[in-house]
Design a protein that fits this description.
The chain has about 180 residues and is mainly alpha-helical. Helices cover about 55% and strands about 10% of the residues.
Length: about 180
C-alpha cells in the first residue's frame, strides 16, 4: 500500500490492486492502513474465489506482484507464470530461484523499490512481453513428471538403492532450473 501511495503521489498514476484469499481478522487493520494512506479506493479484496475465478483474475491482470515475506513455494507466482502474466516477486526464500529471469525481484520491506518495479510493469509493454516469454520458458521447467522423477532420484540417492547415472544427471540438472 505504501508503494501504491508513492506511485500515486509522485507520478500521478493510480494502479488498481486486486487480492483474493480469505479475509482474516487482520482485514480491519489493512483497511484502516489503506484509508490512512489514501489508497483505499485503489484496493479490491475479493475474499475466497473459486479456481476458475482465480484463473480468470490472472488472465485479466495487467501484471502480478507477489510481495510476500514468508513463502515456501510461491504458488501464486507459478500460477501467474502459467497464465502468461508478467510478474514481480519478493527476494525472499525460494522465490528468486523459482522466478529465475522470468520476474522482476524486489525487497518486500522497501516500498520505494516495490514502487519502482510496479511502475516498470505499468509503463513498459516491451518489458512485460519479454517477461511473459521468459515465464513460458520458466514454467515449462515445473511439471509433475519431472518432479516425480526428481523425487525418485533423490530417494534413490538417499537410500543407495538402484542409483543410476541418469538419476545423478537429473539431480545435477536441478541447479540449472
Amino acid at each position: 500500500m505504501q508503494a501504491l501511495k508513492i506511485i500515486r503521489e509522485r507520478h500521478g498514476v493510480i494502479v488498481p490492486f486486486v487480492a483474493s484469499g480469505k479475509l482474516t481478522e487482520f482485514y480491519g487493520e489493512i483497511k484502516a492502513k489503506a484509508d490512512a494512506l489514501g489508497v483505499a479506493d485503489q484496493l479490491k479484496f475479493l475474499g475466497f474465489v473459486s479456481t476458475m475465478e482465480l484463473q480468470t483474475l490472472y488472465r485479466l491482470s495487467r501484471f502480478v506482484v507477489f510481495p510476500t515475506q514468508f513463502e515456501g513455494l510461491g504458488m501464486p507466482l507459478l500460477e501467474a507464470l502459467q497464465a502468461g502474466v508478467p510478474c514481480a516477486c519478493s527476494n525472499v526464500t525460494s522465490l528468486p530461484e523459482q522466478a529465475g529471469d522470468a520476474a522482476l525481484i524486489f525487497d518486500p520491506l522497501d516500498p520505494e523499490e516495490m514502487a519502482k518495479v510496479i511502475l516498470q510493469l505499468w509503463n513498459d509493454a516491451t518489458l512485460c512481453a519479454d517477461l511473459v516469454a521468459r515465464g513460458k520458458r520458466r514454467i515449462s521447467q515445473f511439471n509433475w513428471d519431472r518432479t516425480a522423477r526428481l523425487f525418485s532420484a533423490h530417494y534413490r540417492r538417499l537410500t543407495g538403492r538402484n542409483f543410476l547415472r541418469s538419476h545423478a544427471e537429473l539431480i545435477a540438472s536441478e541447479s540449472s532450473i
